[in-house]
Amino acid sequence: MIPVPRDLSSDCGYCVRTSPDDVEQAEKLLDENDVEYDRVVVK
Known about the structure:
By secondary structure, this protein is α+β, with helices and mostly antiparallel strands. The chain has one helix spanning 23-32, and strands spanning 2-3, 14-15. It has a two-stranded antiparallel ribbon with strand order 1-2. The protein is globular. The two termini are 17 Å apart.
């Protein structure tokens, strides 16, 4: 977990950084653990 980069949001918060190949697995883990998230950004 890292702070949300300013180019994504000016609000406070945290984000999870993962490789593009692991996005689906990261979303699955978040969902399985009832972690609320706003969006997924792939760069």
